[in-house]
Design goal:
This protein is mainly alpha-helical and 138 residues long. The chain has five helices and two strands, in the order H-H-H-E-E-H-H. The chain has one domain. The protein has a two-stranded antiparallel ribbon with strand order 1-2. The chain starts with 6 loop residues before the first helix and ends with a helix.
């Protein structure tokens, strides 16, 4: 028995006009792929942003703390007589600005994250309320 049609053509005919992407075969539409990719990008950028927030916070807390007169603090009481007025060519206030804008970006990304997961959030609270009502009636 010979097959004149390729597997891709047969798969395309079986799937209709949805194409031959394996995601479509699994029931995932192109919109789902785009949404998943967007969610991945938002989560990845949020993670990198959070690392930046932690790094700038540590720099401002331990390397360029307020009120040290440029002596720095690090983890063990500073660097003695060496004055640290800047770190990587940025003053404490410039690091504070970077920290502030990273925080704004993180807030925006978290709003986008919540919007992307809004249906899950609604369904979770619906099921939670149903469970609590059922437990209360018992």
């Amino acid at each position: 028995m010979t097959h004149n049609k390729s597997y891709a053509i047969m798969l395309s005919e079986n799937l209709g006009n949805r194409g031959v992407l394996p995601f479509n075969y699994l029931g995932w539409g192109i919109d789902m792929i785009k949404r998943s990719l967007l969610n991945f990008i938002v989560d990845l950028v949020s993670f990198v942003d959070l690392l930046g927030l932690a790094a700038t916070g540590l720099i401002m807390k331990y390397i360029l703390p307020p009120g040290t007169g440029g002596r720095g603090q690090l983890l063990h009481g500073g660097r003695g007589g060496e004055h640290i007025k800047d770190f990587w060519s940025m003053t404490r206030h410039e690091w504070g600005s970077v920290h502030f804008y990273l925080a704004l970006l993180f807030i925006i990304l978290m709003v986008v994250h919540i919007v992307l997961h809004w249906s899950w959030i609604k369904n979770y609270f619906k099921s939670l309320l149903a469970f609590l009502r059922k437990a209360k009636s018992c």
